[in-house]
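Run: sequence + fe (iii) ion -> complex structure.
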Amino acid sequence: MALRGVLRLGEVAIRVLDMDSARKHYVDHMGLIEVMADDSERKIYCKAWDEHDHHSIVLREADEAGLDYFAFKVFNDQVLVDLEARISAYGIEVSRIDAGVYPKSGRRIEFNLPSGHRMQLYAEKEQIGNTLGTRNPGVIPDEGVVRGLCINRLDHCLLGGPNIDESAKLFREVFDFDLSERIEDEESRDSLALFLSCSTKPHDIAFVIQPEPGRFHHVSFLLESPTDVIHAADMIGKHRIPVDVGPNRHGVTRGNTIYFFDPSGNRNEVFSGGYVHYPDTPTLTWDTSQMGPAQFSQDNIPRESFLTVVT
Ligand code: M3P
Ligand code: FE
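>> structure
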């Protein structure tokens, strides 16, 4: 697996109810960097410090919270050409979006997943760097660049909807992702949650079963260390950010985690760690007899909210 196909989750567009409080949360408290604002569209664009691309998070003020769309970056335009043909041959309608329609971005293709989510792929986005430069870059940016929860980068998102087996099949058969982990019902063996990787991370995207299509479970950001997770917990407490769970450690993926909510009710996660996944790593299966250890391995208490609270 040289990473020459789908590279990573590159953009998550989140609806928020009020931009002032969203900016306070994502920029002032979490420490994402606001790189651009579009007042007419009521959007702001943000990045984490150790990302080279122009932005990874788009916040849009709207009447309802949740996910507008998410986009994966692919290696080059030829991958985009190949994937468009493969998605169409698979039986999913694909539309094309010209370069520049999405700011700082090359052309995109867009389609809907069986779970009801709008997904895009793109190969080009303006790179503005991580402030360290690319020659003798050092390891730590100048004071003030790394702030708040000390987030290194956007990592993954977890989406809720029906037909999660079908969405996972598309990722495996068309996008060449691996199924790294699966939570199933102990009796029916039905899938409850599916974790998929296109890299050496335990997951780049995951799906959880939900009756309503297109739901947003969480967007997750990578921190450098478990020490930073504890620091983030202090900051979350200081700013009175509502916590869902944590600090704790997922059994699934083994990440040290905190789940919390933005002012619109969208769930966020910061985490560090997790094992290394390779394409020959066997799929790990959990079942509902071990929901506690699967979800939160430090107290083994399953949280009902994991399967019910989404935006
Ligand atoms: C993650 C992660 C559960 C697994 C969740 C996993 C709660 O969100 O980032 O590893 O079962
Ligand atoms: Fe997560």
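>> summary
The domain at 151-308 is CATH 3.10.180.10 (2,3-Dihydroxybiphenyl 1,2-Dioxygenase; domain 1). The mean pLDDT is 97.
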